[in-house]
Design brief:
Distance between the termini: 44 Å
Number of strands: 23
Radius of gyration: 16 Å
Number of helices: 0
Largest sheet: 7 strands, parallel
Order of helices and strands: EEEEEEEEEEEEEEEEEEEEEEE
Length: 191
Amino acid sequence: GNLVASHTGFTAYEKTGSSSWTLSGSGSQHWFIREGTLSGNSSSLAGNLTFDTGPGARGVVFAQGTGGIYSGVISGDGNFTLTGAAGGGLTLTSAQSYTGLTTIQNGTLRMGTANALAPSSGVALNAGAWDLNGYDQTIKSLTGDAGTRVTLGSATLTVDASAGSAYRGDISGSGGLTKTGSGSLNIFGTN
């Protein structure tokens, strides 16, 4: 959906219906996402994003053509996806609390604080990279395709998995990888 000039100046908006909406331009308004997907970038999605709970699928997509910083908080029952140009990326500078999956489809997702992702979130790398940037992080699962990479720096990545998962990409850095929980974690890439 497009917001016209008569819909400017508000501090909060609500996304309803199972469709996908794409935001352009800049805006620091907050969004409540009842259902469907809200897409934009770090400029158009600068405010807090809150997912509803209960039935229905909810998600947010950051399509980053270049590097960006997200200082807001994403919370509730929904999924986060990073996509865009291979050289694009996003740095999360606040602790997020959404409970869904974090998917990296392209670009680099960079942490700007310890545990920027909620420990209840799993991370799936379809392409691109996840850079912990030296910040410790706990997640519930790690999956990824060959050709993806996780850069630890000096951080410790803890995977607290209750179900089995496999990561086929590369892991690098001077930090560590800790596996807790009853599920298995199979690593196939260069580490």
